[in-house]
Amino acid sequence: MNTRVISISRQVGTAGEEVAQAVARRMDFRYIDYQVIQDAATEAGVSTETVSEAEHTPSLMTRILEALARNPTMPAAAWADPIPLTTNPLYTSNDYRKFVEQVIRDLAEAGGCVIVGHAAQVILRDRLDTVRVLVTGSDPFRARRIMSGMGVDEKAALKTVERTDRERVEYFDRFYNAGWLLPCTYDLCLNTDHLNPEQAAEVVAHFASLR
């Protein structure tokens, strides 16, 4: 079966977003990340307060998918200080999490997309047309990228590495009973310590072509 979806999970400081965008360009797939879905939800008039209605109101799901279809642009890769996961509605709102899960399933059904995060590697694990990728790296290399991107010292960078890893491990264990960093969760694990985003994307695209 041909690959129609690429899910990219990434540890902070691994250039995972840049890898995902490079993969999308190479494969001529749409790039979908948290901000893209948030923007589409806002455009569709769906908020964390009203999102529970989506399970019972197909028009809400239709509106957000239409908003996603109207937004084909790929955001520029940019560094952002990772917001604590515990403040994210994916963590705090069961309704919002279920809603996003359905958006991910519908996007995968349409195909032709690279999905960053959103537990897509778990949500789509039974789809044979999906390649699930983990972008990883060693703490020192990750800390260097964080130091460069955020302008912080090594101690603060390593704290960010430790915090984000811990939060995501706990999140996947709590809500999906899955090991976020377990290799068996993925089809391909890439260490970007010595690969730039374009090189890593070439590996992903080639792997996808073998399916």
Please render the helix and strand layout as text:
Blueprint: E1 5-10, H1 16-27, E2 30-32, H2 34-43, H3 58-69, H4 89-92, H5 94-110, E3 113-116, H6 120-123, E4 130-136, H7 139-150, H8 154-176, E5 188-191, H9 197-210
Parallel strand pairs: 1-3, 1-4, 2-3, 4-5
Helix pairs in contact: 1-9, 2-3, 7-8
Overview of this structure, please?
The chain is an alpha/beta fold and 211 residues long. The protein has a 5-stranded parallel sheet, sandwiched between helices. The longest helix is centred in the C-terminal third of the chain and has 23 residues. It is built from 9 helices and 5 strands, in the order E-H-E-H-H-H-H-E-H-E-H-H-E-H.
> How many distinct folded domains?
1
What percentage of amino acids are in beta strands? 5-15%
Low-confidence stretches: none
Which whole number gives the mean pLDDT? 84
- Counting DSSP H or I runs of 4 or more residues, the number of helices is 9
Strand ordering within the main sheet = 2-3-1-4-5
Alpha-beta classification: alpha/beta
Helical residues, percent: 40-55%
Task: Based on Cα principal axes, name the global outline.
Answer: globular
CATH homolog superfamily = P-loop containing nucleotide triphosphate hydrolases
Topology as a string of helices (H) and strands (E): EHEHHHHEHEHHEH
Say how many strands there are: 5
User: What is the CATH architecture term?
Assistant: 3-Layer(aba) Sandwich
What's the CATH class, please? Alpha Beta
How would you characterize the largest beta sheet? 5 strands, parallel
